[in-house]
Amino acid sequence: SGFQSKLDYSSGLFHMDIKVPSRNSAGIVTAFY
């Protein structure tokens, strides 16, 4: 269950990166990691 939700979270981040300008998505990824 935890593993599946982790996949969904990663997938959500990936799709969010596509919608957001690359410069901003880079900042978002850095903020999470």
Automatic annotation (TrEMBL):
Any one of the GO BP annotations: carbohydrate metabolic process
Recorded superkingdom: Eukaryota
GO molecular function annotations of the record: hydrolase activity, hydrolyzing O-glycosyl compounds
Coiled-coil ranges (or none): none
Domain GH16: 1-33
Listed name of the protein: GH16 domain-containing protein
Naturally occurring in which organism (per UniProt): Nymphaea colorata
Phylogenetic lineage: Eukaryota, Viridiplantae, Streptophyta, Embryophyta, Tracheophyta
